[in-house]
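subagent[fold] <- orchestrator: predict structure for attached chain, return tokens only, no commentary.
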Amino acid sequence: TLRGTKEMDHMSPRLRAFLSEPIGEKDVCWVDGISHELAINLVTKGINKAYILLGQFLLMHKNEAEFQRWLICCCGATECEAQQSSNCLKEWCACFL
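subagent[fold] -> orchestrator:
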């Protein structure tokens, strides 16, 4: 399920931890790239769990650019946060879907 060791070496510890197991009931702040401030914005929109954010990513057909625009425009993410979190969800999908 986890990607090859070579690929894992280039990942941040937070991303590696997120990819190490199914999402389950993890809070949205577990997603790599989601800062404390962004997590608060997401929770106020009803997105309190990582699986709900993943659902939004899947509804957008795993289109990273569209997902990043949505995070920036609707949730107040920075460009860096949007890129990191969409990459995290993309990598999770590659491991578990």
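orchestrator: received. Logging for downstream: The mean pLDDT is 91. Helices lie at 5-9, 13-19, 36-44, 50-59, 64-75, 79-96.
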